Amino acid sequence: MCSSLHLMLVTCERLIAIRFTVHYPDIVITRNIKVAVISFWVFSISQVIVGLIVGKSAIRPMLNLLVALVLFSCVLFIASAYAIL
């Protein structure tokens, strides 16, 4: 999941660089990049920890659905961004 989220982040950065060249220095700053990367790592690690804690209980299918939705959203965003580019 973390790789997919980071690929989405790189694609978003390239989209901003190409489509919004004038606003790029205002949007893509070091602080924004650090916040995005750290939040993606925290989300990915928390998903793994919750998965280990939950085990095979009734909550597991909901966790799998969340992972599927996040991955589908990543693929959809990346495909849309490349279609725009």
Please tell me about this protein's structure.
It is a single chain. The protein is mainly α and 85 residues long. It has 4 helices and no strands. The protein has one domain. Helix 1 packs antiparallel against helix 3 and helix 1 packs parallel to helix 4. The radius of gyration is 15 Å and the shape is elongated.
Computed structural class:
mainly alpha
Low-pLDDT segments, ≥5 res: none
Query: What's the end-to-end separation, in Å?
Result: 24 Å
- Mean pLDDT score, rounded? 91
Number of helices: 4
Largest sheet: none
Fold blueprint:
Layout: H1 2-19, H2 24-27, H3 30-54, H4 60-84
List its salient traits.
single chain; 85 residues; mainly alpha; 4 helices; 0% strand; elongated
Task: Put the structure in a nutshell.
This protein is mainly α.
